[in-house]
């Protein structure tokens, strides 16, 4: 795979990321941050630093049709200039990614700027043009459809949550493309079997209405100029599996509805190894996170 393609992949990491990797590392840091900022605005975005500890699936000409994963979910006492999340990014790279990038993001987030609190929330994001004129967070615009009777909606508080000195709490997130309609369905469960929350209609998208070409999974954090980088995951480095956040039972869904565990060949991206880390994938599981602090 070319350096340029890898850089482009990072750019989408979030749909919503930054790119300019030095050309490799600079490029990587510059585009996915800009894109991410467009989707998840924060105070003083021009002075915001973005951090990732994620795994990206390899190229697959046949595409991906969903993912299921169990994610430890945590909470942190953050200020308005900080954000900490565990998420899944589903994208289609076909066409001009600057103008036609199709992406879905789902996960948990602590985001005081958005929610006016330091609680942990379920969140969703979508776009079909790299946030040039379409897409939004949660239910801010017409898009994601919540099914009647769902016990949770995008933006709702997740409870209970894990703590380093408390029992781990795990959410199961499944996003899968329905073969007949092409809609992308979100399933969610906490410490149990996931149930339907709602769906992203196929009509929202161009390329994603057919398939995804890459899926990324892991942690994201951000901080503005006058704040330090916040904790990611549990706040412990991946090298301490007894305390670090884990994402496990990661299964990729294929066109024929088969599910296979994510492979060890997924690429790892950590933007600041002094603050955060991600372990290699083994048996469809990895650990990630870190304490944050000053870079």
From TrEMBL:
Residues 45-295 form the Neprosin PEP catalytic domain. PROSITE patterns: NEPROSIN_PEP_CD. The keyword Signal applies. Residues 1-24 form the signal peptide. Keywords: Signal. Pfam families: Neprosin. This is Neprosin PEP catalytic domain-containing protein.
